[in-house]
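Memo subject: From amino acid sequence to discrete backbone structure tokens
Action wanted: Derive the backbone structure tokens from the amino acid sequence.
How to read it: Take the token row as a discrete description of the fold.
Attached in line: The record itself begins immediately under this heading.
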Amino acid sequence: MSYVVDKSYINEIVVEKSRFIALLHPLSSETAFDEYLAEAKKTYKDARHYTYAFRYRNLERASDDGEPQNTAGLPLLNLLKNHDLVNTAVIVVRYFGGKKLGAGRLLRTYVDAGNRVINEAKKFLEVPAFKYEIVVPISDFERTRHYLEKDGFIIDDADFSSLDVKVCVRASKEVSEAFENRYNVVSKSEAVMLKECSDEGN
């Protein structure tokens, strides 16, 4: 079973005056990681190292970024695997404090930094769903919105440019038949919904 995160998280630890800033990000594409890494380098522009690991679909990448081999990138990648996280990136930025930690302690520090930010994050299951566009008379929109939200459907957008409101809604595949029988569906496509998980076992 695999999990994702729904937003970005940050955590920082200091060891021997070196700052280790861990950033955890959800990935919607491979290029999204490049954007997160560029943003980290811009935000923490005077840092010595920008180590990272990410898993997106079947793609995995990791980098020690100048740290001793396998003290950062691979351990961070293994953390993502151990927590069953996919479509997720972890970046650990290091500001060097002037004292070398040694390979063993450095590895443990990167693992600690990564673990802290991962443990802070809420994890979600990706539930197979459909994305619908439905049409609702504008006079019925508020009542329809109330029932949609009450039944756990996710409203992504609503277009009020005409007397009939076009509403984009996500519904899990488990309830798709009932949804289609109840609402005036204009279009339908594959999607996912996120179901929050407890921390037990993660």
In short: The domain at 4-121 is CATH 3.30.230.30 (Ribosomal Protein S5; domain 2). The CA atoms of residues 15 and 141 lie 55 Å apart.
